[in-house]
Amino acid sequence: MPPAHGDGPDPAGEERLPGGFIAEVVRAGDTIRRTPPTNADFVAALLRHLERAGADLAPRHLGTDEHGRQVLSYLDGQVPWRDREDPGYFADPALVRLAVLIRRLHDACAGSPLAGGAETVCHGDLSPKNTVYRRTPQGLLPVAFLDWDRAGPGRRIEDVAFAAWHWAGLGDGADPAELGRRARVLRVAYTGADGPPLPGAELVEVMLDQVEGTWRGIDAGADRNEPGMARLRAAGIVRLVHGWHDWLLRHRRQVLAALGDD
């Protein structure tokens, strides 16, 4: 995960990494130091659970440092910080591998105390910018997820739906049939021969709820003077995502037709 352009090691030997709208993230040797999430205890327990389960899809939780920052193991690889910088990040082999990782997460957490009475534990923020890729003979493939701050009990369909609209184009100029096709690739690879059903109509409805919840959540957070949310709104993200929601509402039937319903 290379540093952002213009950033480099600070006097303490720490290297600021890209991102930073919500949490400040630096690399120190073979560790990552970042602003702790509000659910720090849950995230720590989840990462320890995934390590014990051998899921191999998240950094290891190493505790906190003298500044109170979350300390995680560094994962070598590439993160697509710049949208569409390499089509390999969004190619079908990457989508299939993505679905396999999501299924591995859900299977590892289903029935665990962390899931409570829910179906499983969801990452809650699956996007290319929270995903580590490595080059393989099959191309760029995802190998692990970062930024578990929004993880919590939930339904399997929630992470699959969230990934579907984050690994596809939305808004003016986007192809609704392509969004549906990509959602279908994810669903087929996730369910396999023995997975739980993920009805197409429900997938689209969950996507709509998530897109609306995203812009409304940023807007409400900015109104509460939360710095990260205020920065996102100032960057035009509320307006952008609101437009995505309107677009998806208009093209819902086309998306569903391409997604199908097995």
TrEMBL record:
**The Aminoglycoside phosphotransferase domain covers which part of the protein?**
97-177
Which superkingdom is the protein from?
Answer: Bacteria
MF term (GO), any: transferase activity
- Keyword terms: Transferase
Q: Gene3D superfamilies under this entry?
A: 3.90.1200.10
Per its record, how is this protein called by name? Phosphotransferase enzyme family protein
User: Which InterPro entries did the record assign?
Assistant: Aminoglycoside_PTrfase (IPR002575), Kinase-like_dom_sf (IPR011009)
* Species this protein is from: Micromonospora echinaurantiaca
Asked whether the UniProt record includes Transmembrane helix among its keywords, one would answer no
